[in-house]
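Bench notes, afternoon.
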Amino acid sequence: MTSIPFDIVGFDLDGTLIDTSGDLAAAVNYAIGTIGRPAFPAAAIHPFVGKGAKVMLARALDASGGYTADTLDALLPILLDYYQQNLAIHSVPYPGLIAAMDALTDAGVKLAICTNKAERFTIPLMHQIGLSDRFAAIVGGDTVGVAKPDPAPIREMIARAGGGRTIFVGDTINDIAGARNAGIANVAVGFGFLDGPVENLDADAIIHHFDELVPLLRRWPA
């Protein structure tokens, strides 16, 4: 069997490893519900996600009737507090993820996470869904003071995981540009929180299911 030519496979979290849309939607809907706005279905939240909670909330407010800066500032802590108390009610790994992780681990590849989600949400979420121990490093959006697409958090992820040739898997331009800025290969997923066609991310490769990841990596040029 062909070996995998990477020491580390790094992943984004929301929209890549875990479908967090149900819990993010619940938090958004709770916050906007306090000012009488109607709830969004979880799928409608997908295009709002990817650039942080404040942007997510702003997009939801804009789509439901507009907002002022004061409204946004008042609702953001409500959203964050609710989300922190309800991180893993509906969130689940994407189909095929666990099998792909098992295969990568069996092949001697280390797994790591670099997300723009703050550590106070990221670490408890990973514990609550029972996957924390599977990763050699978990770097949040506030771990090093800057977030993707800045390359610093990806480089920190690589360092914490022990170094070596790394490829990064994500679902947004922040992920793909961050990997490119860090000088590493990248894969875009077509099932995440996309705000346009996945091809627009201009990734080195695209997968539409985690069943495709390990075969893709085995074919990757050494």
